[in-house]
From TrEMBL:
Domain of life: Bacteria
Name the record gives this protein: Type II toxin-antitoxin system HicA family toxin
Native source organism of the sequence: Candidatus Accumulibacter appositus
Matching InterPro entries: HicA_mRNA_interferase
Lineage: Bacteria, Pseudomonadati, Pseudomonadota, Betaproteobacteria, Candidatus Accumulibacter
A Pfam family per the record: HicA_toxin
Gene Ontology molecular function: any one: mRNA binding
Family matches, as SUPFAM superfamilies: YcfA/nrd intein domain
């Protein structure tokens, strides 16, 4: 199992992670077919190749995701079918 797959499994839990770093989120989202961009500040837009997009604010100073951010990310991954293995891009 690759590191990216392990990170995804950790993210989808249970239990929901309380210490999931921003850098690992970028890895997981890229693995699942999302690209991200930031036009300044802390708000990042993640866009899936299917056209689905959502925005997440990077937490400061530690870069650890909050519970609502993990929930939003899991919802986005569900919407594009990434949690059932349909949309992963190696």
């Amino acid at each position: 199992m690759s590191k990216k797959d392990k990170l995804l499994l950790r993210l989808i839990g249970p239990p929901a992670p309380k210490d999931f770093p921003w850098s690992d989120l970028l890895t997981v989202m890229g693995h699942c077919g999302f690209v991200h961009r930031c036009s300044g500040g802390s708000h990042f837009t993640f866009e899936h190749h299917s056209g689905f997009r959502f925005t997440v604010s990077r937490t400061h100073p530690g870069g650890i995701l909050k519970a609502y951010q993990v929930r939003d990310v899991l919802e986005a991954l569900t919407m594009v079918g990434a949690l059932n293995g349909e949309e992963r891009n190696g």
